[in-house]
Amino acid sequence: MKIGVISDTHSKMHTRVFDLFVGVDHILHAGDIGKPEIITELRGIAPVTAVYGNVDSFPLVSQFPERVVLTFEGRKILMTHIVDDRTAQGIRLLIHSTNEPEISVIIYGHTHEARIEVAENVLLFNPGSAGPARWQTKSSVGLLTIESGQPPSAEILRF
């Protein structure tokens, strides 16, 4: 299963996203959406699950949760906008707070910095920002691949 991962569009999504997400089975938006039309555009590609971010306001905060746990191919994914503490202890506390002990992947945004890390046997994945470039970072999205019986893998696509 291929999952498109996007964050920090801030009301303007780069047109390259449509090409990069061709063929994905699902799209996860990790917050700072900006305006509801972004989700509508993404739904033209594949089903979308989103969380709101710290700059999102009404109506987005009424339509989407702060965090969500999803299951794809038997793997549990936690998605939230901000992960303040990516240390092993911070990850354990975050997972414990969900009452979902078997989290395989944590997807987050906020920093605009694309990152792939592993802590406590959990894949931490920030796709970077697909909106207007800030802080001299390149725009990017991510692809998450989940196959039954295999560990999840992530890829960052910069543009």
Q: What descriptors fit this protein?
A:
159 residues; alpha/beta; Purple Acid Phosphatase, chain A, domain 2; five-stranded mixed sheet; 4 helices; 10 strands; 18% helix
List the helices and strands and how they pair.
Blueprint: E1 2-6, H1 16-20, E2 26-29, H2 36-43, E3 48-50, H3 60-63, E4 67-72, E5 75-80, H4 88-98, E6 103-107, E7 115-119, E8 122-126, E9 140-145, E10 153-158
Parallel strand pairs: 1-2, 2-3, 5-6, 6-8
Antiparallel strand pairs: 1-9, 4-5, 7-8, 9-10
Brief digest:
With 159 residues, the protein is of the alpha/beta class. It is 18% helix and 32% strand.
Structure in words:
With 159 residues, the chain is of the alpha/beta class. It has a single domain, classed as Purple Acid Phosphatase, chain A, domain 2 (4-Layer Sandwich), CATH 3.60.21. The protein has 4 helices and 10 strands. It has helices spanning 16-20, 36-43, 60-63, 88-98, and strands at residues 2-6, 26-29, 48-50, 67-72, 75-80, 103-107, 115-119, 122-126, 140-145, 153-158. It has a 5-stranded mixed β-sheet, covered by helices on one side. A 5-stranded mixed β-sheet has the order 4-5-6-8-7, covered by helices on one side. β9 (140-145) and β10 (153-158) form a beta hairpin. The chain is globular.
